[in-house]
Amino acid sequence: MNTVRTLPIRVVPVDGEAIESWLEAIAHRTHTAFGDLLTAVGLSPYNGMGTTAWIVCLNPDEVATISTATGIKPDVLETMTLQHYSGRAVRIKPDARMLSRAFPWGRGRGSRFCPACLETTGGRWQLRWRLGWTFACTIHNCLLADACPHCGAVQRRRTHIGDIIPQPGRCSHPAPDATGRSPTRCGADLTTAAVAVFDSDHPVIHAQRVVNTVLDRDTVTFGVYQTVPQPGLNVLADIRAVAGRALAYATPQDLETVIPQDLLGVYRATAEPSDSRSGPARTDTKPGGTGTGRDCRGRSGSRCERLGSPRRGVRRGYAALAGDLLTGARIGRPRNEHRVG
After folding, report:
1. Euclidean distance between CA atoms 26 and 23, whole angstroms
2. Which positions fall inside the TniQ domain (predicted)?
3. Domain count of the chain?
């Protein structure tokens, strides 16, 4: 076990925060390079910059040293890694501390984000945003973004670079034209990412609430599972199976009869993301198609220059709508009642 000392400044995690976000907040507050902060709490700088093992699961020694350095209780630290969702939303390979890609729709790396949540919390990231099943924010009633509005990079594929001080809420990916061993960071304000906003009772927001309930429970006992309760993992697999069939066999005309028109418009207006490591393809079209609309903070604006909510996330919303069939929830309202705003 590494010998560590108590840090002179304490930073309390926000509710639901991911461990790397909290560590970045400490580094920012103490004006410390991220690699030095990792050393101070007993994490290897090499592992911190090269892998995401401790984001997935902390080993007992890491839990003990981080707790000693920060004063945060071990049981709280364990809720800040993806281990918190093990057996409910993800499967973890225990020997390698890696996510199993076999589980339906799990994200290997990276995180979506709600721009308004980043703004209100000072750039703190929710652990739940790393899950493939999280596609919308039920606080701000918007789809999540997963790309920088400036450089187009998918966020948090790796832990923060170790030789600079983190800037919460800013893109830490290399700038688009930067070169060299230590390229200049993009630094774009992620709170400006454009996302589609809906009414609080919109079916896609309701679907996310249903999925969140499944994620938070070991056993699901509502909908078709009232008589035969099932583990959450099985319910998510059922949702994926139903949604997969719907998306594979439904015609565009079929989808139009059950998918809210504003959500369908977001899907059609969004280019498929590229396979580039730098992130999804860019588009000059605002989510939802033409005219003006609201961003995640409710302000009116013109067409956005880059889309923060890629097509893949919208498909997750479609999937959850199909999952409503299993949980007994309604799919939608009359078509003319669906609107953004």
Report:
1. 5
2. 8-144
3. 1
